[in-house]
Amino acid sequence: MLPEKGFIRPGIIVAGTDSHTCTYGAFGCFSTGVGTTDMANIFAMGDMWVRVPTTLLFQLEGTLPKYITAKDIMLFILGKIGCDGAAGKVMEFRGSIIDRMPMEERMTLSNMAIECGAMCGLIAPDNTTHQYLQRCGQDLFEEVISDPDANYEDIYQFDLSHLEPQIACPPKPDQVIGISELGEVPITKAFIGSCTGGKLFDLAQAAEVLKNHHVAPGVSLFIVPASLEVRQKAENLGYMQIFVAAGATVLKSGCGACINAGFGVLDKEETGVYATNRNFKGRSGDPTAKNYLASPRVVAISAVEGRISDQLSPRAEHQKKYKKLDIALNVSSMGCDRTSTEE
Fold first, then answer.
1. How far apart are the first and last CA of the chain?
2. How large is the greatest C-alpha to C-alpha distance in the chain, in angstroms?
3. Identical fold at 13-159 and 166-322?
4. What whole-number distance in Å separates Cα of residue 198 and Cα of residue 48?
5. Single pTM value for the model
């Protein structure tokens, strides 16, 4: 809500009692999660003590393959450096891929910096940032960007031109493999939502997949818009109608199953694929359950297929055509009722 209401702008410092406060680094500000004691001090004293962190630079180049998203990129990075690879540091993202990335996708990258242990995920402001801020009615800010000769603790350079969809296997977000290495993993639940996977861009991915398709038998798909504003926009764009027609359950905005609350949590021995940010044991349900992480698009396809997949099978396409044929036959039979049995 803070970005969409115009409260986040470049050059400021943001502290919040949620580790995913680092999301706002996508706007070129230093944002980090703090504990309740630190927040009480901020309220009482108006200050916050922070040891200036070192920075890791991630230079992301190339041209992303079709349907590869920021979630895939962040899972890929997690697989490379691990959950402690940026502990207590800042992750800064640059490169041609960032230049072409919309704000909501940048927010996904910054959001999951904490999964690498980072305090913040920084992206320098540019025209994309300015346009987003202007739509939010925010045009007063002072940019702070890295000096040309800035010192980085380490620099990672990745060409992502051939990146395939990435999957984080239980029980840690850094247990990442390409989907082609996964094998057959049937699922019983799928979840698209949270601060990582419930933005309008994420719901658009899901709607594109689910249009004229239906969730597989034995699978429950839960969709949670990230905010009331996102929900309203999704309704206006027709996404909600698509979700309902596909057999998904749309829940109220909130953390939900991502923090093991409400509908969508995994029961004993269940397997799910979630567009959330963490899959630690017991994070989103029973400790005996298995939770895989993927992009919203992969989660939607998996819900239709009944297994983790990034491709709709010919069977699903056949069901899509059969549904259209069935509707046509029903219309035809309505005409027959008005004529003789022989006809």
1. 61
2. 88
3. yes
4. 30
5. 0.89
44-66: average pLDDT: 95
Residue 314: the pLDDT is 80
Nearest by Cα to 274 from 289, 287, 259, 293:
293
Q: Which amino acid is at 146?
A: S
Burial class (CB in 10 A: 0-12, 13-18, 19+), 318: exposed
pLDDT of 320: 54
Which amino acid would we find at residue 187? I
Q: DSSP class of residue 114?
A: G
What SS3 state is found at 104? Answer: helix
For residue 254, count CB atoms less than 10 angstroms from its CB and return exposed for 0-12, middle for 13-18, buried for 19 or more. Answer: middle
Q: 3-state DSSP call for residue 8? A: coil
Q: Are strands 271-274 and 290-293 parallel, antiparallel or unpaired?
A: parallel
User: At residue 342, does pLDDT exceed 60?
Assistant: no
Q: Specify the CATH superfamily of domain 166-322.
A: Aconitase, domain 3 (3.30.499.10)
**CA 195 distance to own-chain centroid:** 7
Q: Where exactly are the structural domains of the chain?
A: 13-159, 166-322
Asked: is 13-159 a CATH 2.30.110.10 domain? The reply is no
Q: How open is the CA angle 129-134-140, to the nearest 5 degrees?
A: 90
Chain-wide mean pLDDT for the chain? Answer: 91
User: Rounded to an integer, what distance in angstroms lies between the CA atom of residue 137 and that of residue 4?
Assistant: 10
What does the pLDDT look like over 77-97, one tens digit per residue? Answer: 999 999 999 999 999 999 999
What separation in angstroms does the CA of 6 have from each of 22, 60, 106, 231, 305?
A: 16, 28, 16, 18, 39
Q: Are 258 and 277 in contact (CB under 8 A)?
A: yes
Q: How far apart are CA 291 and CA 166, in angstroms?
A: 14
Report in angstroms the alpha-carbon separations of 264 from 108, 197, 211, 227, 290.
21, 14, 21, 18, 13
